[in-house]
Automatic annotation (TrEMBL):
It comes from Aspergillus sergii. This is CHY-type domain-containing protein. Residues 28-110 form the CHY-type domain. InterPro entries: Mito_Tim_assembly_helper (IPR052604), Znf_CHY (IPR008913), Znf_CHY_sf (IPR037274). The keyword Zinc-finger applies. GO terms for biological process: protein import into mitochondrial intermembrane space. Keywords: Metal-binding, Zinc, Zinc-finger. The keyword Zinc-finger applies. GO terms for cellular component: mitochondrial intermembrane space. GO terms for molecular function: zinc ion binding.
């Protein structure tokens, strides 16, 4: 005779409801919206991680961004919480035990300790895309008129003698 210790194991699990394509798209859009809320810094252009401040529990790319947006001072702690902008996963690092291997995201190995690229003011002329309208580009093949004399040949018509 055959005995069953657990009668629940004989019960079939309920069938899963098939997810429609539209529901999948809506679900992926809502996930992307929640992960796209990581801030973008105007001070550091190549920020690879967002840092969570311990004082107000908000995400910032740099201390200057926190100073601009919040009225209180930034609280300093040894443990920092990072959110990788590449894989959108969070991790903690202790700054007292920071090693060379801690410069990489533990999930995707993205190198997040980089030399900061800061924006520099520049005066530029904006034009159309060079592939569409290339009149703004300088053609290095065309040389200008080079005079090799101390006398201007063009002014010779106006001179007497």
């Amino acid at each position: 005779m055959w005995y069953v210790d657990d009668p629940v194991s004989l019960v079939k699990p309920p069938k899963r409801k098939k997810v429609k394509e539209n529901e999948k798209k809506n679900l992926s859009k809502s996930i992307n919206r929640s992960t796209d809320t990581l801030p973008r810094s105007k001070h550091i252009l190549n920020a690879q991680v967002a840092i969570r401040s311990a004082c107000c529990k908000k995400w910032f790319d740099c201390a200057e961004c926190h100073h601009e947006q919040e009225s209180h001072a930034l609280m300093k702690t040894t443990e920092m919480v990072f959110a990788c902008k590449k894989c959108k996963k969070c991790f903690r690092k202790d700054s007292t035990e920071f090693e060379e291997s801690d410069e990489y995201c533990p999930h995707c190995d993205n190198h997040f300790v980089l030399e900061a690229v800061t924006p520099k003011p520049a005066l530029q002329v904006e034009g159309e895309d060079a592939r569409i309208d290339n009149r703004m580009l300088k053609d290095d093949r065309v040389r200008g008129h080079q005079e090799r004399s101390i006398f201007n040949v063009r002014d010779a018509e106006d001179r007497l003698g």
